[in-house]
Amino acid sequence: MDINFENASFKDFEDIPGMDFYGWADQFDQYVNNWDSRGHWNYRQESLNGCQPEVELAGHPGKSFVALVFNDYLGLTQHPKVKAAAIAAIEQYGAGAAASPAIGGHFSYHQQIEEKIARFFRRESAVLFTTGYTANSATIQSLLKAPDVAIVDMGIHASMYEGCGHTNIKMFPHNDMYYLERILKETQGQYRTRMVIVDGVYSQPADIVKLDEVVKLSKHYGAYTAMDDAHGVGVIGETGRGVIELYDLFPDVDIITGTFSKTFGHLGGYVIADPKVVNYLKFQARQHIFSVSATPASACILKSIDLIDEEPGLRDKLRDNIHYLKNGLDEMGFDTGNTQSAIIPVMTGKPDLNAEACRLLIEAGVYANQIGYPAVARKNARIRMSLMATHTREQMDRVLNAWEWVGGKLNLTKRVTN
Ligand code: PMP
């Protein structure tokens, strides 16, 4: 089995025929060393000061990097009130929860977060999960079985795909309402339950679902809807309720899921649904009943939810940063795709060019992520940047200057590549 390491991706090392996992690991090790030898292995950089607009990285003494890798859109991981709330809760409840929610691990802050996040979305009920990933996978896995079908936008997050493992799945091209309608027509009468699954903000294209059309079509053809708005909440909508607010469809999506690991600056997932469905999940979702509940530090989520309303200036600052960086990149001729969120991609189109751009950015003091297959198609390789309200104008200028240098070195602007 010969793998061309230079063009390979993580995915090529999954289940290599004729070998067991020691063989796969050995091949993978050779692949990592090959990329690393060119300075192209930019993953798992060790941040010495956590999640900040500017970080210090192990192996780069005396240097700091503008960080564009965190989904901490409002900077709440470092907000003094959020940190104080986490510390106070540890003092009150201890360090861990030590049991799953159904059998002991359901504390006052869990109850309060469930009530508060449901109210945040103007709904009645919510259930917590320990991560956004498990909220998604558990919910779909618990609600859709063999006689059912998940009708999914191809761009949904991996956690939603994982939830579809025990049901049928039909995919429509990203945001393509013509295809969605075609599938809804074709599947009529063939399945017990049909659920259309979308993201609010799609994490790689960074664009927004056409939720009004998704809801209208699903209702028309008698299908249910589920939306994961992990990247939209706190960023999109007048008061930061996300894509559901943008379209004013609060009561109209059957299942809303999300995470506390991005805008809310902590960790954990939630599912908002009809009260009986929520109760069903509390006792049927394996990831909920067989796994420990969120640690006491998670009580800080209550403060983060308040801050979305109490400090709207953070959202304004984030939007300013998005506007400034995107305009600057567009003016220089970079292809920033169709972003409508706090995630700004710069398309490079080739894995090797992408990795070299990432390496050069590091050299120029900018820490961004290289994204390639399988997260996106190989031809859609890109550098992905997540912006925060707490980035300063001076940091944004450093990023633009770095891109000007990298773009010149690699001929990355549209003017040149088109
Ligand atoms: N949904 C989307 C769209 C995501 O981008 C992510 C995280 N990358 C998740 C869900 C999973 O959330 P968590 O990190 O809380 O597990």
Short description:
40% of the residues lie in helices and 13% in strands. It is of the alpha/beta class.
Describe the structure.
Residues 66-402 form the Aminotransferase class I/classII large domain. Keywords: Aminotransferase, Transferase. The protein is an alpha/beta fold. It folds into two domains: 38-67 and 312-410, Aspartate Aminotransferase, domain 1 (Alpha-Beta Complex), CATH 3.90.1150.10; 80-309, 3-Layer(aba) Sandwich (Aspartate Aminotransferase, domain 2). Helix content is 40%, strand content 13%. The protein contains 15 helices and 13 strands. It has helices at 21-37, 80-93, 108-120, 132-143, 158-163, 177-186, 211-220, 243-246, 275-284, 286-289, 300-310, 312-332, 351-363, 393-410, 414-417, and strands at 54-55, 65-67, 125-129, 149-153, 168-172, 194-199, 224-228, 255-259, 269-273, 343-347, 366-367, 369-371, 382-386. The strands form three sheets. It has a seven-stranded mixed β-sheet with strand order 3-9-8-7-6-4-5, with helices on both faces. Helix 2 (80-93) runs antiparallel to helix 11, helix 12 runs parallel beside helix 14 and helix 13 crosses helix 14. The longest helix has 21 residues, at 312-332. The two termini are 37 Å apart. 46% of the residues are buried. The model has no long low-confidence stretch (mean pLDDT 96).
Question: Which labels suit this protein?
Answer:
single chain, 418 residues, alpha/beta, Aspartate Aminotransferase, domain 1, Aspartate Aminotransferase, domain 2, binds 4'-deoxy-4'-aminopyridoxal-5'-phosphate
